[in-house]
């Protein structure tokens, strides 16, 4: 039987399902938990017309990952992230960390990454940097699977991944530490402290990650830190501030057919946020100021038969922004949100500072206002939104969205949504290299979704199935003009597929979860598998714990064209632990335990079986 048939049968037999592996000590996320990403306000996921996946702190902590992206790939249907090492992704040539959601690539800026609702991207190339998003900083992650540009603007053309950072859950101080090491000289360490007293809260995270890599010249290390402070000015008003910094050094070994020497990237990314929020009985809102910055030093390396590069690539970038919104009910069952986003960004990029200046301190700006209205009438919830976006390059854009959810019974929900998304051309496409074109327009796409959700056994078993269709136009592609390459708005695509998900809490000690996605692309892209299947479980009896999961990938394009190559593989992972004392746990975990050879990028084989052992402390 073909692998894709096996995957389909397994997915359906598992119950049409997806969710986070829950830590028994923490409340699990279910398919009816509250989310904010689809509306900016807390709304039950059942009532939200657009499909949203939630990955909670339990799944993130249980994974023992340094970066949050590997956890999301397991727990969110339709989301895939390329990899090439035991830890770390890198940037520039040969880098992994390309994020695909329903065939949309975040590496191309078509899926937005947010931290506490604020956009995160390297402003010169317009893409997120996967090594920047640390698992230890995340309380939960909400993934909007479908266009979210009404609320989040450019780069939300294919969806939004909102990383909501941690804050103390209880009064007093909690200090935790996790240390682990194992295969290929891999080490992961994290120290976290949360504190709450009266009106004041604080969270501090420090992390260190390294590996020698499973190939020559594939070492990686990163150092990260976050400080987040909060203060309740009154019962209705809250103020907050946070700052985070990540430095990641990654080596690029090159494809096995042409190994690279001296290829590395040294990347520093930072983020700072000031926020002021209010919550009254009938109205609530927020105003935030944020600033992101980056410094990239890259050696593109060379093969053994070529000389070393005479100059390194240097890039600095920044993004400064303001977001503000206020929600008010106009009448019973209604909530109207008025918001604005202001964005100012730019950067500088060069190799030889005298003759190879790619972006000379370019600066762009964007202003937007939006209205988003929700109305509940009996068992129906309607929402509709409109955004007016003005950009310094291409001018005005109108972005609409509408949706409907219907709950005929508490255990069944039907949802329909239609939304427009767009992506602004990035600075590289506008101004850099021979193909630059300063007259580009935004890319556009429409997303249509139908979702059926059910809750069985009193809410212990939750299932969801989504059908989607997305059509894009004005896609920026390189064409030949007079024998020279130029970026033009000439491309189009249509993606459609099915996503199924379920979580089943058999007992307080034992949970199962699974998800499956099928993707058909009229225009084929790399890094987006046709079939993706995950099945996992978590068990604990107080002293002993164990979890395991398997991911099966089929139809992952490594290359396209006449000689297209696809990848097919299965990755089995497992973890076992023992609670030595109330404050100390010992554990061992393994990945790719079947020892299968696989690639998610052409010419970059993944590591074989890896094993890590560690200790977790909570004081």
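^ Assign residues to that structure.
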């Amino acid at each position: 039987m073909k692998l894709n048939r096996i995957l389909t049968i397994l997915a359906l037999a598992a119950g049409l399902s997806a969710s986070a592996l829950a830590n028994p000590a923490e409340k699990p996320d279910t398919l009816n938990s509250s989310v904010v990403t689809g509306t900016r306000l807390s709304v039950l996921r059942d009532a939200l017309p657009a499909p949203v996946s939630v990955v909670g702190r339990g799944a993130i902590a249980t994974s023992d990952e340094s970066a949050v992206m590997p956890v999301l790939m397991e727990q969110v249907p339709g989301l895939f992230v390329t990899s090439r090492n035991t830890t770390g992704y890198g940037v520039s040539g040969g880098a992994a960390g390309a994020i695909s959601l329903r065939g949309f690539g975040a590496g191309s800026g078509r899926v937005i990454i947010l931290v506490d609702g604020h956009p995160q991207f390297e402003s010169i190339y317009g893409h997120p940097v996967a090594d920047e998003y640390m698992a230890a900083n995340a309380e939960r992650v909400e993934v909007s699977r479908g266009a979210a540009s009404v609320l989040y603007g450019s780069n939300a053309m294919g969806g939004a991944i909102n990383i909501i950072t941690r804050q103390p859950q209880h009064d007093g101080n909690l200090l935790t530490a996790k240390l682990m090491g194992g295969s290929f000289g891999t080490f992961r360490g994290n120290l976290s402290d949360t504190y709450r007293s009266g009106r004041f809260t604080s969270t501090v995270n420090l992390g260190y990650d390294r590996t020698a890599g499973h190939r020559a010249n594939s070492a990686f290390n990163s150092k990260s830190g976050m400080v987040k402070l909060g203060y309740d000015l009154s019962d209705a008003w809250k103020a907050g501030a946070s700052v985070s910094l990540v430095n990641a050094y990654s080596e690029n070994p090159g494809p096995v057919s042409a190994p690279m020497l001296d290829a590395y990237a040294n990347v520093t990314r930072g983020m700072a946020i000031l926020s002021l929020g209010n919550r009254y009985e009938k109205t609530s809102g927020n105003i935030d100021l944020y600033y992101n910055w980056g410094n990239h030093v890259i050696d593109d390396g060379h093969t053994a038969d070529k000389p070393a590069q005479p100059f390194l690539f240097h890039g600095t970038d920044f993004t400064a922004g303001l977001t503000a919104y206020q929600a008010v009910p106009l009448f019973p069952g209604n909530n109207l949100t008025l918001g604005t986003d202001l964005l100012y960004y730019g950067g500088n990029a060069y190799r030889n500072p005298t003759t190879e200046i790619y972006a000379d301190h370019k600066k762009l700006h964007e202003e937007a206002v939006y209205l988003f209205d929700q109305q509940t009438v009996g068992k129906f919830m309607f929402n509709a939104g409109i955004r007016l976006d003005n950009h310094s390059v291409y001018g005005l854009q109108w972005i609409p969205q509408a949706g409907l959810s219907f709950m005929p019974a508490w255990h069944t929900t039907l949802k329909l949504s239609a939304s427009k998304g767009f992506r602004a051309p990035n600075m590289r496409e506008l101004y850099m290299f021979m193909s630059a074109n300063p007259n580009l327009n935004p890319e556009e796409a429409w997303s249509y979704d139908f979702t059926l959700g059910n809750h069985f056994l009193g809410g212990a078993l939750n299932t969801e199935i989504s059908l989607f269709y997305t059509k894009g136009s004005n896609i920026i592609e390189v064409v030949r003009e007079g024998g020279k390459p130029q970026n033009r708005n000439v491309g189009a695509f249509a993606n459609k597929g099915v996503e199924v998900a379920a979580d089943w809490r058999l007992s307080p000690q034992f949970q199962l979860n699974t998800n499956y996605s099928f993707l058909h692309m009229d225009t084929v892209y790399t890094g987006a598998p046709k079939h993706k299947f995950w099945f996992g479980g978590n068990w604990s009896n107080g002293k002993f714990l164990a979890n395991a999961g398997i991911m099966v990938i089929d139809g992952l394009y490594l290359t396209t064209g006449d000689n297209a190559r696809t990848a097919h593989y299965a990755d089995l992972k497992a973890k076992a632990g023992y609670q030595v004392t109330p404050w100390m746990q010992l554990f061992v975990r393994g990945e790719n335990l079947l020892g299968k050879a696989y690639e998610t990028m052409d010419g970059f084989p993944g590591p074989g079986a890896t094993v890590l052992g560690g200790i977790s402390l909570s004081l």
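The chain has one domain: 3-187+194-618.
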